[in-house]
Structure formats: C-alpha cells, structure tokens
Amino acid sequence: MSPYIRSRRFAPVAAAALSLPLALHAQNAPEPADAKAKALPAVTVKAAAEGAPAIKTDKLDSPKFTQPLVDTPQTITVVNKETLQQQGAATLMDALRNTPGITMQLGEGGRTDVGDSFFMRGFAAGSNVFQDGARDLGAAVRDVFNLEQVEIVKGPAGADNGRGATGGYVNLVSKRPQADDFTAASLSVGSASAVRAMVDFNRQLGDGVAIRLNAMASEADVPGRDELHKRSQGIAPSITLGLGTPTRLTVQSQHVRQRGTPDGGVTTIGLDGYYDSDFDTGAAAGVTPAKADPANYYGSVHDFEHTDADMVTVRVEHDFSRNLKLVNTARYGRATVDRMLTAVNGVIATSADPASWTVERRRHANLQSNDILANQTALQAEWATGAIRHSLAGGIEFGHERQNVTGLAVPGGNTAVLPSPVYMPDPSASLGPDPVANATYQHGRVTTAAAYLFNTIKLSPQWQLLAGLRHERYRAETERADLDDDDMLVSHALGRAGSLTSWKLGAVYKPATNGSIYLAFANGQTPPGGNGLTLTTESVSSNSADRAGLDPQRSQNVELGTKWELFGGQLALTAAAYRSTNRNEVIEVADGVYTQDGERRVQGLELGAVGQVTPDWQLSAGLATMDSEVVAGSYEGTNATGAPSRWTPKWAATFWTSYRVSGQLSLGGGARYLSRQSRVTDPAADLSTQNMPSIPAYWVADAMASYAVHKNVTLQLNVQNLFDKAYIATLNNNGNRYQPGAPRTVTLAANLLF
Question: Which range marks the domain in which residue 559 is found?
C-alpha cells in the first residue's frame, strides 16, 4: 500500500468523530416553537403517507436556469433520489442508465477503469461532470449516497460551463440541510457477498440552523468475476445557518475512500466477432477457439487500486428581494489515485493445442493527484419593462485545476509480455518486480476566468426568448520530464492561452400553459489541454501545443423540440430532434501529414417520459436515435470520411416503471437496450479479418418489489439482469479485452425512516 494513501485512510473516521458531538446535540436540542411553521415539506415522509414518492423534478438546481424544465429549450433529464432508491443504484453509472444515448468506455492500459468514463450522444463526456455547478474531479467512481438528484444536460453547453465536450454534461446535486428532523437509513445484502449501509441524518439545532450527515460503507466482490473485490466508505457532513431567512450560509464537505482490485479485463478469444491470424493462417489455423470463462481474472494478487476524494464547499445565498438573489459557491477538492494493474493484451497460439495458448499481459501503475479550486458568483433577477418580463442570470467564475502524475515503470523497462494461460490464469504467479518511480513526471494545470449572462424574455404568455453569452479566458500549462533513448531525463514546458466565447439562443412557443414548442441553438469549444489538463508535442493530438495555429475544437447544436406536462403536472413528456457537429478535429490527410480540418456529426431523435400516470403508477422512459458520421476525416482508418463514430449505437432505450399495488406493496421493473456499437469504423475495412468489430446489441431487464412491514420500515428486493443475459459491457480500442456485463444479481435492502 502506498504510504501516501495509508496516511489518509482514516480520514472518514476522523470526520465522523468530529460530526458526532453535533449529532448528539441535535438529538437533545429542543424543538423551536415555530419550527413547524418554518419547516420545509419532507418529501420522503409525505410521499409515504399520500402516495408513491414523486420521481419527476420541475426545476434544475443551477442558478443559471431560471425557468421550469417545461419551458427550458434543451433536452434535460433529471434522475432524483427516489428513482435511485427504487433501482437500488449505488454509482453514477447506475444513475445514467435512466437516460438513453449514454455509453460506457473501458479505457486503455493503465488508465482502464479510472473513474467514470462515458460517451454522450457519440462524444466523450467523462471529463464534463460537475457537482453543484462546479467541475468535479474524475478520479473516483462516484457514489450516489450524498446526491439529491442527477441532472443530465444534452448537447454542447459552452455558455453554461465553458470549455467542454460536444455531447453534454452531468451535474450532481448534493444533499443539503433542511428545516426538518429526520433520519433515513438503509442496509442491504446481496449477491457476490455484497453489503452496503447508508444513513441520512438531518436535525435542526436551533432557529435557522440545521445539520445533515450522510454516510456510506459498502463492500462486495464483483458479480460474475473471480478475485475482484471493492470496498468503499464515504461521509458528507454539512451545516446551514440562516434557514428561512434572506441570508443563508451552507458549509459542506464530502470524503470518499475506495479500495479494491482493478479489472484489467477478460480476453475476447472465442467471442462472436473474434479474429486472430494465428487461427486463420498461423500455427493454430483451422482451430475454432473456445470462449474464455468470463469469470477469469488475468491480473495479479498484488494488483490494487486506492482512490481518495475530498471536497469542501461553502455556499452563500442572499435574497435582496423576491426578484433579486445572489449565490456564491466556493470549492476546494482533491482526489488521488494509487494503482497497480495487470492489463490483458493479445492471444499467442504457437500450436493447435489450447493448453499451450497464452495471453499477453503488461503491468501498469498510476499515481496521480488532481486538485481544483473554484469560485462562482451568480445573480438572478426578474423585472418588467412594460408588458415584457425578463428573467436574468449572470455571474463570474474563477477556476484553477491541477493534475500531478508521478512516473512509474517496471525496472528494466515495461516491455515484458508476462504470458498467462488463456483458460487457466493463475493470479498468484510471479510477475517480476513491481513498477517504481523513475524520476519522470507530468504536471498539468488550467486556469480560467469567465463572465456570463443569460436572459429569458417573456414577450407574452405564449412567446419567450432565451439568449446566453459567456466569455472565458484560459491558460493551459504542462511541465513534464521523460526519459530519452539513452535513459536521460529530458524536460519540457508547454503552454497555451486564449479566450473562448460561447453562446446559446432559444425561442419557446407555449400553445398551452402546460406545454411548449422550442427551437434552440448552442455552441461549445474545447481548447488544447482543456479536458485532460495535458498538453503534448505530438502532432496527431488535438492537445498539441507545438502545432502553429491549432484552434479549439468547436461544436454546435441545433434542436427542435416540444415538452408537455399532463395529469396536473405530474407526468412530463418530451420530444426533440437534434444535430450536433464538432469541427477542427485533427485528421491525417496523407501518411504522416495532419491537419485540423476534421468534422464529425451526430443527429437523431430523443423521446422521454417521467412522472406519475396515476398517484400509484410511476414511469420513466427514454428512446434515442444517433446517426453518426465523420463528414470530413482522414484518408484512411477509423476516422476516415464517411465512418460512423465509435461506441455510438443507432438506437438506445431505457424504461422503468413501478406500481403501488396496495398501501404496503409496490412492484417495479424495467429494461435497457443498446443496439450494436462499432469498434471498427473504417468504411474500407474487411470486417471478416477485424478482431471484434463491434459490441453486439443487447437487452437487460431489471425488477423490484418493496413491502412496508411497518410505517418506518420497508423491505426492498432488487434483481438486476433478471434473465441473466450474457453481454459485453465495454470493449477496449483494439478489441483484445472486454468487461462482461454483470450476471443476475439479487439485493435485499431494509429502508428505515424516522
């Protein structure tokens, strides 16, 4: 275990100890005489008494959005904590299953499975995750124990957040103290020796003062896999002063510790689409290889992954009047990763005897830290000029992000193949010396300063316009030291600076008070080093700092849609047609000749429904199409003109429904569908000689049943992958390894509310 990690492993225990006196004081504090009048409605308690908990959210948490979702001209999905609880969700990836058009990515080599990595509408979006509006650190697999809701915003959003990906972004809304007293807890056990406990404790300490403590601990093997084990702990204390007054101060912190075994993947040998020349024209020609057991673990018992993530947020809100509000959010966060991983590569078949076949492996190590310091000041104002009403959101933002990577390598070089038997891997086999620090490093940082202004202009009850503008100054810097061919340390200092101007425009027509039809335009920009905090001298990279005139990648989105609220506003229906383009991609126009003339386009339809059909029947569903194409690309290969985008299914669907059969019994279930995802996208490629050209389409069904054995105790049974479907969850870029989808898993939880 790394000494750096060891020194921090007991931070959650220390935070809990510091929170204990507050919790004890809260339990004994007298209730203010006017507490009932000032208390906000406790959704969880009232839902239990009046009907099924509401899964529909009407408004985003961000102060940049002044209008309800039905009048916001953009495709947005909100997954609240009630949905997460129904589905037994534990991670952000579980939450994102509730919206179509998002696919997961396996990653390469030593970066396999570091944090949440996903595509949105055909574009990488893993670095575009925010928490309470501030950019989040991506080193950890995010847990949902401290989340009120997950907001998924589709399409370029440079006006919202500055530099970023074309597909959209995700905002995580933290739980904050409320003017109420409640304790919610959950204890679950399940397949693969899974145990998980959570608590949500909220107390009023006095007039206008409340504390909240969310905590989580979980431990489990990985379903369907050998040797893999995960352990996670988290604690999130917070306090608010001034509840129910014009000025409110909230101080929050969140601390997560994750310990586990990293997954280097399973060899794809024998899967549908597998190809290797050894079985075509080589030593094993004519032999049809069998599939490797998906439970196989090809790593080492010495592999490990330790992740720490800490964050402190201070939020100040002041209401000057009913129509004028100021919000300031300041945050410091730090995340560290220390990992050792044995990754799977290609198969070597030197004869027709399967016992002699081996799979190549290589050892990778990663030791890095990410820091973020951010401050955001937002102002909301409403006023009228005659018959025209304005809803304004403006602000300034400052941010500094830093990433430090320590170079690690196996003594003597990382070229050792480290073969393992294909069908009988031995995790205890010696793999030689572990990687150690080798004096190389990479330090990257990005500093930004931005100002933005949005105005929603209500021309009449039927018509309103939205205009938004953001201007941002940025500087990206990278300092690195590498070993040359003579093992001499060579240092580089790279830097890029510039400005970005982003905008969005929308027109909304309301044929009725419960519906809208809109047309919206928006753009986004990603400068070199803007996402990965890394500049490079490689001409093939969009992060190159050496190529003269390298511009930011520029994305644009046009969307025509409609939104309706039915059944008294309880059910929301949405439909949108969209087209997103990304320009200035680096492409190879001749052998070794690169230009920045690339363009990629994704277009399609997206339908959604969320809410209550009746007080007892809830529904959350989505359907998306994604037609992707490289409009201007390389002269050959994956990014050739006419190629589709990798990992972009043409069809995606998600469905979840639940029904309260009686006052005690509720039943639910759903399904997720992804059509084929291409790995090999070169239009000229002969797919019969390409290894794993795609991930096959698949359906996965889930089910839930809950029973209230007492007014404060509910038992809940969740079955994931109800029909035990075998499928490929993620595949790496060369198709040599994959992560199998989890088999059928069963979880039984006791949910308590006091």
Answer: 3-753
Give the Cα separation of 480 and 534 in Å (integer): 10
Which pTM value belongs to this model?
0.89
The neighbour count for residue 56, using CB atoms within 10 Å, is 21
**What is the DSSP code string of 98-109?**
TSTTEEE----G
| Rounded Cα–Cα distance for residues 448 and 198 (Å) | 37
Task: Count up the domains in the chain and report the number.
Answer: 1
Give me the residue label for tokens 């990798």. 646
Nearest to 717 by CA among 683, 751, 676: 751
pLDDT tens readout for residues 358-406: 999 988 899 999 999 999 999 999 999 989 999 999 999 999 999 999 9
**In contact, 549 and 125? CB cutoff 8 Å:** no
For the residues of 690-743, what is the DSSP string, one character each? SSS-EEPPEEEEEEEEEEEEETTEEEEEEEESTT----EEEE-TTSSEEEEPP-
pLDDT in tens, 9-48: 333 333 333 333 333 333 333 344 343 333 333 333 334 3
CB atoms within 10 A of CB 665: 12
Residue 587 has which token pair? 């492409």
Return the structure tokens found at 740.
Answer: 């199998």
Read off the CATH number of the domain in which 113 is found: 2.40.170.20
C-alpha span between 702 and 87 (Å, rounded): 8
Alpha carbon distance 329, 136 (integer Å): 14
Phi, psi of 13 (to 5 degrees): -65, -40
Stronger pLDDT, 381 or 480, i.e. the higher one: 381
Contact 650, 677 (CB under 8 A): no
Cα–Cα distances (Å) from 372 to 125, 250, 309, 569, in that order, read 18, 19, 11, 39
- Alpha-carbon distance 88 to 747, whole Å? 8
CA 640/CA 585 separation, integer angstroms:
12
Q: Which amino acid is at 685?
A: A
Beta strands 129-131; 168-174: pairing state: parallel
pLDDT digits (tens, 9 = 90+) for 263-282: 999 999 999 999 999 999 99
Helices and strands in the chain, H and E counts: 7, 37
**CA 173 to CA 79: how far, in whole Å?**
10
What is the model's pLDDT at position 28? Answer: 36
Whole-angstrom Cα distance, residue 349 to residue 359?
9
> Both tokens of residue 504?
């969005």
Beta bridge partners of 541: none
Q: What are the pLDDT digits (tens) for 47-83?
A: 433 556 788 999 999 999 999 999 999 999 999 999 9
The Cα angle at residue 346 between residues 340 and 347, in degrees rounded to 5: 120
E runs forming strands in 626-674: 627-632, 651-660, 665-674
Q: Is the pLDDT score of 416 beyond 80?
A: no
Q: What is the mean pLDDT of the segment spanning 313-341?
A: 95
